[in-house]
Design a protein that fits this description.
Layout: E1 10-11, H1 18-25, E2 30-32, E3 35-39, E4 45-46, E5 48-49, E6 51-54, E7 57-60, H2 66-86, H3 92-108, H4 111-114, H5 119-133, H6 144-150, H7 156-172, E8 184-187, E9 191-194, H8 205-209, H9 212-220, H10 225-228, H11 233-245, E10 276-277, E11 280-281
Parallel strand pairs: 1-5
Antiparallel strand pairs: 2-3, 3-4, 6-7, 8-9, 10-11
Helix pairs in contact: 2-3, 2-5, 3-5, 7-9, 7-11
């Protein structure tokens, strides 16, 4: 297949093993300035790019989501600044409507794909919601965590995990493709649980551990039995939101030296690590 230079970009991931490099040499790439480049029919080269945009998501050669998050945060920050300059009403209802429709939507597009684990990336995203909510009349004196509770909101960090769980439900109900071949099995005591794949002990292990293939099943398995068996999406969302809003939500924020682990996966490990048991919150979540 011949590629057009103006319609394609080349994203090159580094391989450390010699066998992988040998495999690359068998592809339609040629050695050019010590890197792999594609030679077009017009005898022009497609050189490797540091980042490539695909369906609105910025992919990087080093498998980092920081470039995408940085660009996304800057776009959302400009939108938030425009909203605050055009609309003078700072009432709760108006501000929340503008934020949810114009700002937050930019911060959550495709988040199951790029959901970050780096503290600095999490803080950068959270800073948008932190700043915007501080402009709402009547609650400026509250801390960010207190504002979340007062507004009955989740942090963006918690909402990304919510989206991971919802996507797992859609996979279970075959509403979206199961490209990762995630498997479910029924347990009489725990309900429908997802099989968590083994994480390879290699240099790619940490990256794989933070991917949806691993985090999705782990988060799903924290749900109580009755939630895993629900077959209506809206009912599932309402029940899930009720659970998540009842849990302590203290996302990492800039300027705070002491950070409490906020991910649902950072909860103290127990053999039965469900979010709810018998309709009551576990004491570890208080």
């Amino acid at each position: 297949m011949s590629l057009h230079k103006n319609k394609f970009e080349l994203l090159q991931h580094t391989y450390s093993s010699r066998s992988n490099i040998k495999d690359l040499n068998e592809l339609p790439f040629v050695s050019y300035d010590n890197s792999h480049c594609y030679s077009t029919a017009q005898d022009k080269f497609l050189g490797p790019s540091d980042t490539v945009r695909d369906l609105g998501v910025l992919l990087s050669a080093d498998n980092s989501w920081s470039p995408h998050i940085g660009r996304m945060v800057n776009t959302a920050r400009r939108t938030a600044a425009w909203v605050l300059s055009v609309f003078r009403d700072r009432s709760r209802d108006t501000m929340m409507l503008l934020y949810k429709s114009l700002v937050r939507s930019k911060l959550e597009y495709c988040c199951p794909v790029w959901s970050p684990t780096k503290i600095e990336d999490i803080k950068a995203i959270e800073s948008l919601q932190r700043t915007f909510t501080s402009k709402i009349s009547g609650i400026q004196h509250l801390s960010y965590w207190e504002r979340l509770e007062h507004l009955n909101m989740m942090s963006l960090h918690r909402r990304r995990e919510r989206y991971l769980i919802i996507h797992m439900w859609k996979i279970r109900m075959t509403q979206v493709p199961n490209d990762l071949k995630i498997k479910f099995q029924y347990n009489d005591r725990l309900g429908l649980k997802a099989l968590v794949p083994k994480v390879p002990q290699s240099h790619v292990g940490a990256t794989y551990q933070n991917s949806f293939a691993v985090k999705g099943p782990r988060l799903w398995n924290m749900l109580p039995k009755d939630r895993t068996l629900m077959d209506d999406l809206e009912s599932f969302k309402k029940n899930l939101d009720r659970i998540l809003l009842s849990l302590k939500d203290t996302p990492p924020v800039a300027g705070s030296e002491t950070q409490i682990p906020n991910s649902l996966l950072d909860r103290p490990g127990k053999r039965d690590n469900r979010l709810l048991t018998g309709g009551r919150l576990k004491s570890t979540l208080a």
